[in-house]
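quick one, 316 residues, struct below
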Amino acid sequence: MSPAPGIDEIRAAAERICRSVRRTPLLAAAPVKEKPELASGLRLKLEALQVTGSFKARGAINAVFSLPPNQLRRGIVTASGGNHGLAVAYAGWATKVPATIFLPRLVAADKIEKLDAWGAQVVVAGEVWDDSNRAALQHAKAKGLAYVHPFADRAVIAGQGTIALEILDEAPDIDTLVVAIGGGGLISGIALAAKALRSGIRIIGVEPVGAPTLHDSLAAGRLVELAQLDTAAVTLAPRRSEPVNLAIVRDAVERIVLVDDAEMRAAARWLWREIGVATELSGAAAVAALLSGCYRPIAGEQICAVVCGAGTDGIG
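---
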């Protein structure tokens, strides 16, 4: 069996999670005062309004609901830059099982407060996600707990793919989807679903200049591990992706563009001023690619940018 889910699995995920996640708005960006020429063909998929504040709830709920009951009842564990941890904490709350979330030290304090509110146990381990992930894997093995990978888990990828089902159901005329990349789970799920429904649709990935994990892996023709990370968008900053995500991106994503922190911050402020949505830096990355000109649409191109996470670090 392929490690990547097919369209039937993604549709099954949509059925499985529909009562536990929101069908988020697909909003026409126009009318706007700033950059009206961009907004005329732009729609925004507002996953910042998803339960827990990001798209991650889709994949986490699908993965946890898919676990065998005898495995689930022992508890779940993950490592996260913040958003996936919140989603797994929510899944633990929804299934009434203990959730343990390993975080790097740079995670925003408000995300730790939200994790506490969902009843999760928080363990701070390491400077970056990769360090936290090693600690989470060791803990899961030692305690016999189910580990939920944030981007390389088949059920997680299928859950994220439900976003594309919703977009193309409401806007079948979309030519291009612009999607932020951290480890690659979001763009993997969206690309698989979108390409299955419309083979000619374009998928454009967006990574930070300071964390070009899959961009550099594509250029090298193999998975690379970044020697250092230099971005404030910590939810987009693993040192290394995984083979399943690289394979999907290589086959289904037209290209990856890079945006810097200042461009993400400018996009977050634009989203706040013009749309009234507060996003973290990563949540604004797809819009940043458009506002900055890193991706330039052709005349008449219909684009959907996924606004993937809520927060205030982009507008503060």
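The longest helix spans residues 154-170.
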